[in-house]
């Protein structure tokens, strides 16, 4: 993801932060709202991480991918959203060059990991519905752990390289700004690797998933064998719930990349607009735990066990959290 190009930061003019133009009540409200969003993002995703990590019954391929997405969202909540929201409220970058470098790297990292994890979720659901027997034999938690680890390591190497070769890891930052340099070639590569290719894969696979899910719904009504029906219902519901997550993710991601692509094709005049549109993408990290709470009964049960501290009981990891109606 790119906000700026080399020619945008070639000349760093003397800059001073503008005076605050909000009234004090509005100023306080903005900070309270920002703190609430950050708290929801961090706490909500930590609950997801604890739930999937603690309860052994939830160590399934699909949930491991949800865990990876939640870790990425926590990083956004801790290292990205607070700085970005303060930046927008103050109209000035206050933390300094070190935190600017951390902010930029984590932003790149969380974005690429999130997009590729959602692509893995699409692949996982497609295989589970289209090739159920092969899926149950070949797609084990170990396989997904390896795929997830590769995703994170690839993202670290890729993002460090793209930032390093463009000279972003320096102590010099324009006063009041936290811009990063990404030339046109790197911008095009990033657009392909982090947006066009994975999002095209997501759309194609989930279009196929919903077609298969519809066929399964018809088959379920015709089947008489209860066991087979329950299995098909389970996979179909998982596909539909994760489909909601994928749809919301794309809804939050597309506006940024549409503006980014327009900016890439024209000039750098849309910087402020893109910077604001990024908020919608970051808010996806806050929305994901809400989706889990609304559509996953196991998450509601885990939440009760966590807030009542029953997770500290002996053998609590073996509790049947899927016993609720699904």
Automatic annotation (TrEMBL):
Segments forming a coiled coil: none
SUPFAM superfamilies: Family A G protein-coupled receptor-like
Span of domain G-protein coupled receptors family 1 profile: 44-292
Keyword Acetylation part of the UniProt annotation: no
Taxonomic superkingdom: Eukaryota
Compartments in which it is found: Cell membrane
A Pfam family assignment: 7tm_1
Topological category with respect to the lipid bilayer: Multi-pass membrane protein
Membrane-spanning segments: 28-52, 64-89, 101-123, 143-165, 185-206, 238-259, 279-299
Cellular component terms (Gene Ontology): plasma membrane
Single annotated GO MF: trace-amine receptor activity
UniProt keyword Transmembrane present: yes
Primary location class: membrane
Protein keywords: Cell membrane, G-protein coupled receptor, Membrane, Receptor, Transducer, Transmembrane, Transmembrane helix
Family indicated by similarity: Belongs to the G-protein coupled receptor 1 family.
Stated name of the protein: Trace amine associated receptor 14a
Organism, scientific name: Triplophysa rosa (Cave loach)
